[in-house]
């Protein structure tokens, strides 16, 4: 028996009446033919004097484009729009937020439309919460390494500081867990970035991030069985600086073990685009909040300890102590004054004679000079180089200081040649910093200095430390480029770095300067005399000259002369002198010789 059509129609009407979604059937011009109760409830707040007779008129304030969309839809049937959001403008009863409707419009045939209306307030709220969460996560994430960033670290530290208990003796296990902050900075990242480019530098940072994450294990051997796993947050807070926050630490030695593990992981060579790169790191450890009361202060203390580790030679960790703050403040004062000194011409150059030791026992006082920088502070007087050179290296000013010395030394040398002729020094030695050698385009700067001052390239000797010259192939390539200009190169402080006599032939240098630590014991230690003799013989076999640094006594001079050293330098002959005093010194020596 076939179902009664009237029953089917009644069932359809009941469904439309009870449907949990608003349904409206209209003509193509929006005139309402059927409207279920849910649609009436949802649309009523939008109805004005027109009532609910025409859907387009009801929705005109929030969706005036509907008539044009229907007119533009040429197909006999199909979806005109779907999920169109409509702000109602009244508060939602459940959430208190402004109510939002969702409208979908379907063309049934050439004469009729079907609209569905739903309450989308909760959905919009969820979408907004999701967007807010994504934006917040993006604001707390480093774009390059996908690590948390400084803001995430600050939030985590604030939580830990708020929960911090009074510190016990930090050398012993405390009754309550503490936290530790480890701030890590690459020792050679700036040189890698300058010499190999930013793309390589970015890859190196990503590798460093991976190694830091890999070195932080989810559990550690010093945890008691069943203990809660300490939280470990690893983040990049800018440049080549990373931070690790260790939570629920029982004593400082546990945090130091993690620090050593991190440094060991970062010290292994990296291979990037065919380059083998060594980039160790310095690490500062701040234990608990200490006297710091906010996240920035904790990070500052860890950063101060990191700088101390870097000053001690790098590739090590240092634990913060409050006395470091005062030393850091002094260094900050020196940095600020040094920046001003560069602009106000407070720096000047002095010259220490380098004399030639002739086989017949005579001394060539005009063999050369070494240019050394000094600082005349407006209130402190002469600032010793030991107080500002390392600060200049740490804050990135050493390149500017070195360039100033190079330019002034070249100008003075040319002036002496014009004034004194053959009696003037024949060689000008200038120290070369790591920052200058790693600076992109610095070879062109040297070439321009030579051309601008008229300095003969063969009369200029740039001196690099042994540890710098032996570092990697890129540094040695730069040194070869300098030699290509006709400049001489000297290996300074030989015996204190990483190279050896067996590898001396690999370095593109013309002169080896034997460090004063060997020379000062030459007259009292047979061991040091043997080292000096071996250095002189190997250097001479390679066609290199030798200079004995730090000669202070006649007996030291006698030893290096007996070892056939080519030149000598030290207080025995003269302290570093301002240019006028140097010329007077030369005049006096020439007068005695005459």
How would you describe the overall organization of this protein?
This protein is an alpha/beta fold. The chain folds into three domains: 5-125, Beta-Lactamase (2-Layer Sandwich), CATH 3.30.450; 143-220 and 228-321, Alpha-Beta Plaits (2-Layer Sandwich), CATH 3.30.70; 333-583, Alpha-Beta Barrel (TIM Barrel). β4 and β5 (112-119) form a beta hairpin. α8 (198-215) packs across α9 and α13 runs parallel beside α15. The N and C termini lie far apart (142 Å). Residues 167-174 and 219-229 have low confidence and may be disordered.
Give the tags.
single chain; 594 residues; alpha/beta; Beta-Lactamase; Alpha-Beta Plaits; TIM Barrel; eight-stranded mixed beta barrel; five-stranded antiparallel β-sheet; 21 helices; 22 strands; 24% strand
Concise structural overview:
This protein has 594 residues and is of the alpha/beta class.
Blueprint (SSEs and pairs):
Layout: H1 5-18, E1 22-27, E2 32-35, H2 37-43, H3 55-59, H4 66-72, E3 78-91, E4 98-107, E5 112-119, H5 121-139, H6 150-162, E6 178-186, H7 189-196, H8 198-215, E7 232-238, E8 241-249, H9 252-267, E9 270-272, E10 275-277, E11 281-287, H10 295-311, E12 317-319, H11 323-343, E13 347-357, E14 363-377, E15 381-383, H12 385-395, H13 398-420, E16 428-431, H14 434-438, H15 442-453, E17 460-465, H16 466-469, H17 473-483, E18 488-494, E19 511-514, H18 516-519, H19 526-541, E20 545-548, H20 554-562, E21 567-568, E22 577-578, H21 579-593
Parallel strand pairs: 11-12, 14-16, 16-17, 17-18, 18-19, 19-20, 20-21
Antiparallel strand pairs: 1-2, 1-5, 3-4, 4-5, 6-8, 6-11, 7-8, 9-10, 13-14, 13-21, 13-22, 14-15
Helix pairs in contact: 7-8, 8-9, 11-12, 13-15
């Amino acid at each position: 028996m076939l179902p009664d059509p009237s029953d089917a129609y009644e069932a359809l009407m009941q469904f439309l009446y009870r449907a949990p979604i608003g349904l409206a059937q209209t003509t193509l011009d929006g005139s309402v033919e059927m409207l279920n109760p849910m649609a009436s409830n949802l649309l009523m707040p939008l109805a004005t004097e027109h009532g609910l007779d025409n859907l387009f008129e009801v929705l005109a304030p929030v969706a005036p484009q509907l008539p044009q969309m229907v007119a533009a839809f040429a197909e006999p049937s199909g979806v005109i729009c779907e999920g169109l959001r409509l702000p109602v403008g009244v508060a939602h009863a459940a959430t208190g937020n402004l109510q939002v409707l969702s409208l979908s419009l379907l063309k049934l045939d050439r004469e009729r439309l079907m609209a569905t209306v739903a309450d989308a307030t909760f959905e919009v709220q969820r979408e907004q919460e999701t967007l807010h969460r994504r934006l917040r996560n993006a604001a707390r994430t480093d774009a390059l390494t996908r690590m948390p960033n400084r803001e995430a670290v600050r939030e985590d530290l604030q939580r830990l500081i708020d929960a911090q208990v009074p510190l016990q003796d930090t050398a012993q296990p405390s009754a309550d867990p503490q936290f530790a902050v480890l701030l890590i900075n690459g020792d050679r990242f700036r040189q890698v970035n300058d010499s190999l480019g930013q793309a390589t530098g970015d890859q190196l940072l990503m590798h460093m991030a991976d190694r830091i994450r890999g070195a932080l294990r989810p559990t550690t051997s010093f945890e008691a069985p069943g203990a809660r796993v300490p939280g470990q947050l690893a983040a990049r807070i800018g440049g080549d600086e990373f931070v690790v926050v260790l939570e629920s630490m029982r004593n400082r030695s546990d945090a130091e073990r993690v620090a050593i593990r991190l440094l060991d992981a970062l010290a292994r060579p990296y291979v990037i685009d065919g380059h083998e790169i060594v980039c160790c790191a310095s690490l500062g450890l701040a234990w608990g909040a200490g006297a710091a009361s906010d996240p920035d202060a904790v990070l500052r203390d860890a950063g101060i300890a990191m700088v101390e580790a870097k000053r001690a030679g790098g590739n090590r960790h240092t634990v913060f102590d409050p006395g470091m703050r005062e030393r850091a403040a002094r260094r900050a004062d020196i940095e600020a004054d040094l920046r001003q000194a560069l602009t106000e011409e407070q720096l000047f150059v002095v010259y220490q004679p380098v004399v030639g030791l002739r086989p017949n026992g005579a001394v060539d006082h005009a063999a050369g000079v070494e240019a050394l920088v000094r600082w005349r502070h407006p209130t402190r007087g002469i600032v010793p180089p030991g107080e500002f050179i390392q600060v200049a290296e740490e804050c990135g000013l050493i390149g500017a200081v070195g360039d100033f010395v190079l330019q002034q030394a070249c100008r003075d040398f040319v002036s002496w040649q014009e004034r004194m002729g053959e009696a003037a020094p024949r060689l000008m030695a200038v120290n070369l910093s790591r920052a200058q050698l790693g600076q992109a385009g610095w070879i062109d700067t040297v070439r321009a200095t030579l051309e601008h001052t008229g300095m003969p390239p063969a009369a200029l000797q740039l001196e690099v430390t042994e540890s710098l010259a032996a570092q990697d192939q890129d540094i040695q390539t730069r040194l070869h480029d300098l030699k290509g200009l006709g400049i001489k190169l000297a290996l300074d402080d030989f015996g204190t770095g990483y190279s050896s006599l067996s590898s001396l032939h690999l370095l593109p240098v013309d002169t080896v300067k034997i460090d004063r630590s060997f020379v000062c014991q030459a007259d009292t230690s047979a061991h040091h005399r043997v080292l000096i003799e071996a250095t002189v013989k190997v250097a001479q076999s390679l066609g290199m000259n030798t200079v004995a640094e730090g000669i202070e006594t006649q007996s030291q001079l006698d030893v290096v002369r007996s070892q056939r050293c080519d030149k000598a330098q030290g207080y025995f002959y003269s302290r570093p002198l301002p240019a006028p005093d140097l010329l007077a010194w030369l005049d006096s020596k020439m007068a005695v010789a005459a």
